[in-house]
Amino acid sequence: MAELRIRTARHTIKVAAPPKRVYQLIANVDRWPRLFDPVLSVEHIGFDGTGERVRFWARTDGRLRSWVSSREVNPKRRQVRFRRERSEGPLASLGGLWMVLPKGDGSLVALDHYYRVAGDDPVQAQRLEETIKATSTAMLAAVRKAAELDEVWLPLPDKVNVDDNAEGVSSK
Question: What is the per-residue pLDDT across 113-128, written as a single tens digit (0 to 9) for each?
């Protein structure tokens, strides 16, 4: 059986905020429900000293979804690597890297994705490329807005309720 093609995507944005602040926004997943509209809640599953496992709950395409990602944070390099442990079709696999680089008086943020499409279906590949572009663009814009306006530094609520008809929840 032939190996599935690995597809890649890079999206970037300039941010008028110090790299350390931008990196902290990205690295701290506890703030993601306030930072990214689709993300409703996160749950820390485990930490082994270098990597962590996090369950994300989000509303996408009108559905409540859940998935587990393995993440490795590197504050020295201002990078966060991530990989979904299981992908839901048409994705065969998905991972990537957030990078925050100094750029003039601010930062340059790059969000890289690598993914494989089940069956290398060209129609699904095109659809996933468009979805990854739209999602990445929205996430990068949210990071810029929050870093430049300091709005994510406000206190977080103690609890987020994601109790929505549990029968329709996808956990892949």
Answer: 999 999 989 999 999 9
Q: Global pTM?
A: 0.84
In angstroms, the Cα distances linking 91 to 87, 98, 129, 136, 160 are 6, 20, 11, 16, 28
* Six-digit token string for 100: 């925050």
Asked if residue 168 is part of any domain, the answer here is: no
Number of domains within the chain: 1
Query: Residue 107 sits in a domain of what CATH number?
Result: 3.30.530.20
- Could you tell me which residues are beta bridge partners of residue 78? none
Specify if 139 maps to a domain. Answer: yes
Bridge-based pairing of strands 91-103 and 106-117 is antiparallel
Residues of the domain holding 102: 6-154
